[in-house]
Amino acid sequence: MDCMTCREALSARMDGEQEPVPAASTDLHLEECAACQAWSAEASRLTRTLRVRPVGAVPDLAARILEDAPASIPRVHWSRIALGLVALVQIALGVAEVFGADQVMPGMVMGGHLFNESTAWNLALGVGLLWAAMRPRAVVGMLPVLTGFLVALAAFSAHDLIDGQVGLSRVVSHGLLVVGLALLWVIRRQDSGFGEPSRVRQADDDRAVDGVTTSRAPAERGRRGGGPLRPTGRHNAA
What we know:
single chain; 238 residues; mainly alpha; two-stranded antiparallel ribbon; 12 helices
């Protein structure tokens, strides 16, 4: 084996590639050739210098960043405040029915047990709306309940109005729940962010490398776990 072939094999070995000749032949020539030994030592040193760089001193900017960062103040949307007010009024109506049924809604004809059921519903819906105002995640559960309740209530109210079984003031009072339903939808839209990606995910997708902002490809973003896609095929050298 000549020195050129040996050095080519050593270079391939350092790069993790397949050697053009058997490794035993390369090692045998390397033991006998001082020039190739010197070349191998110098090549190893240069390879390590290129691959491993000394870590430079990095200033600690944590204190400065925390000082300049704006204070984190939780934002409360107007819709949640409005929903809380609607809930309080709804609860007040339910409490008023408990302590003064005849004075709250005159002209309402209803049996004792049915009246108790109506009062319980008013109180329960008021509490549910108040909880949704404080915990927006509860909005998802309140939406189907209140929507179904109002759809059925609208049909029964129209029938009772035509038959004269209920006064107009009683039916109008249900408009408060309609306002509550609308506010639930508004909060649901605000909580979902109108389909926009979250800031944390966007910051993770757009990464700055050496001062240049790079954005992940759509296929890479869609992969669960956020890691890069890898080739499905693999070639093993013989």
